[in-house]
Design goal:
This protein is α/β, with parallel strands linked by helices and about 290 residues long. Helices cover about 35% and strands about 25% of the residues. The chain is built from 13 helices and twelve strands. It has a five-stranded mixed β-sheet, with helices on both faces. Strand 9, helix 11 (about 225-235) and strand 10 (about 245) form a beta-alpha-beta unit.
Length: about 290
């Protein structure tokens, strides 16, 4: 038993002014959903992941289900808002759901990470907007999820923050001078580079613990945090017998959609390969899964 990933779709980069104005995460997701639903497949579950939804409620998954209710009316919707690691979490859960229920699962990871960041921020050039989606289908050929793990690291909780929540009123009242001109300076996505580097130092140890169960993968896809960090990690992992994927310059950091976008970019090279997909960020979390393709 196992699963296969079919009908992959991804897009990233600059968006039209119209798409940047309102419901950007949903519109990115909609591009993906329209493509995937064209295959006329019946889905048991829709799993929608984002770091920063357009609205807290209705959720991204609810918006997708409502728009395509004639197709997804009998589909169970699961929303994940877990930051960058949520993309891998969604892929793991979708794989488990498809294998457990012997069904197809529709996976969509969508993030307007650049839009969520203030243009005045030092990390604004690092982030990008992007979407990844696929059909995760039950199969009896033994491919699919082999192993997964997740760990949260003490004192690294604030490595990435998005403060637009129930307590945002306090932040707004304390920074009224910026609220009409640059609200994302205080409410949007921020990356603490010092904490990010501390988290990255945990990456090799996490990898070694992971492969003590699985052995080395053929290919390693890490979250493309930024060019500096990925170049550093490429050097760190050069001692291991694994192909390290570095696409940070091309893709930028597209939030939870990043690892899926990279997977789609190398889709023609993964057949009969074991691929470890690993992401990290918000909450000081590292999450990884190993798939046999």
């Amino acid at each position: 038993m196992g699963v296969s990933l079919t009908s992959m779709f991804s897009r990233y980069g600059s968006l039209s002014r119209e798409l940047m104005q309102k419901e950007t995460v949903y519109h990115l997701a909609e591009m993906c959903v329209i493509e995937l639903l064209a295959d006329d497949v019946s889905y048991s579950h829709l799993i929608a992941a984002t770091s920063c939804p357009d609205t807290i409620a209705p959720s991204l998954g609810q918006c997708i289900n409502q728009q395509h209710n004639e197709v997804l009316s009998n589909t169970h919707t699961i929303d994940i808002v877990q930051g960058c690691a949520g993309g891998v979490t969604a892929l793991i859960i979708a794989s488990q759901m498809a294998e457990l229920n012997h069904t197809n699962v529709l996976l969509v990871t969508s993030d307007a990470a650049k839009k969520a960041t203030s243009p005045t921020s030092d990390v604004y050039p690092v982030f990008n907007n992007g979407v990844f989606g696929c059909n995760i289908a039950y199969t009896a050929n033994g491919t699919g999820l082999l192993h997964y793990a997740s760990k949260q690291y003490k004192d690294l909780y604030d490595v990435v923050t998005i403060k637009l929540g129930h307590d945002a009123d306090v932040v707004i009242c304390e920074n009224m001078q910026d609220m009409t001109t640059d609200p994302r300076k205080h409410l949007g996505l921020t990356l603490n580079n010092h904490l990010a580097m501390k988290l990255m130092r945990q990456a090799e140890g996490f990898y070694l613990d992971f492969i003590s169960t699985t052995g080395h993968p053929d290919i390693l896809i890490l979250h493309q945090v930024n060019e500096m960090i990925i170049h550093h990690l490429e050097h760190v992992f050069s001692k291991h017998p694994v192909r390290f994927i570095n696409m940070a310059k091309q893709t930028g950091n597209c939030g939870c959609a990043t690892t899926g976008i990279v997977l789609h970019a190398i889709k023609d090279e993964i057949k009969n390969k074991k691929v470890m997909i690993c992401s990290f960020g918000t909450g000081g979390v590292i999450t990884a899964g190993l798939w046999q393709f």
